Amino acid sequence: AVRVPALRARLAAEDAELAAAPDGGALYDAPLEAAVRRWQAAHSLEVDGRVGPMTQRLMNRPAGAVVGQIRVAMDQRRGRGAAAPGRRIEVNIPEFRLRVMDGARQVTAMNVVVGKVARATPPLAVRMTAVQFNPPWGVPERNAREDLLPKFRRDPRAMMEKGFRLFTVVGGERVEVDPMTVDWASVNPQRFPYIVRQDASDVSALGRLKFVMPNGDDIYLHDTPDRHLFGRADRALSSGCIRLSQPMELLDLVLEGVPGWNRERAQRALDSRQTSFLSLPRAWPVRLHYDTVVVEQGQARLLSDIYGLDAAYLRLLDQRR
């Protein structure tokens, strides 16, 4: 069972709002429940205000583990320097959060979905060079083998209705294949023989917008039809790319620096249902980083080390001592 006075003391030590509230003693009162909810949100847990097994386990982390997490954060920040001038995009992977910054000033922020543990989003420093309206999805081979093959086996017609198309290469030419003619039970997932593409649509995996930032990992920012996922606390759910909760808000900011473009023209491009490509006159710096300690208004929030990168970094720090 959770001892309420101990819980209150534990949270008040790092939650200024709870520390300033009247002491409710052994009563699990509204200020304490609100503090539990804030703590759960900061640690990518389900925000229900209840101190269940997962919440209790993370709250009871040894002090040494917390100190180690802070050591990693401090060492990472030493080599970063001051914020660069001008607008840029920052995505903190374990926070599931994107920020548009102008120097040290935050312009806007939004929730994002990042890669699941098995398909982790890599830290990157790249440049966004273009926007694609109504993007088709060229499905990576791994996604086709692991995610789509079972669905084709169950119901190829349903996959066709979602805009998925199959191709094979014959004599150097790409030839389309009717999914209804494939003996899916005999397809070897280790040697998946088809190229898979999903046409642009409202149900396409990429939604209506793709923000292009060339890199060797083929990571980009994009819209998504799966809006319900942004309500989850743990949003490590994608195959590596960054899904945006507010893609149109980001588009508006990007278009501010593009002569002849505004929301109305962009909406016409989207409404046309045709795939089109807008090269940006100024490339935007984009940094995908992995910081599990976030400081806001003087308060440090310790996030979950979703990919185990802090643990590996800490081992390197200890070896240098």
Automatic annotation (TrEMBL):
Keywords: Cell shape, Cell wall biogenesis/degradation, Peptidoglycan synthesis, Transferase. One of its GO terms (biological process) is cell wall organization. GO terms for molecular function: carboxypeptidase activity; transferase activity. The active site is at 222 (proton donor/acceptor), 241 (nucleophile). Residues 87-263 form the L,D-TPase catalytic domain. It comes from the Bacteria. InterPro entries: LD-transpeptidase_YkuD-like, LD_TPept_cat_dom, Peptidoglycan-bd-like, PGBD-like_sf, PGBDSf, Transpep_catalytic_dom. Pathway: Cell wall biogenesis; peptidoglycan biosynthesis. Belongs to the YkuD family. This is Putative peptidoglycan binding domain protein.
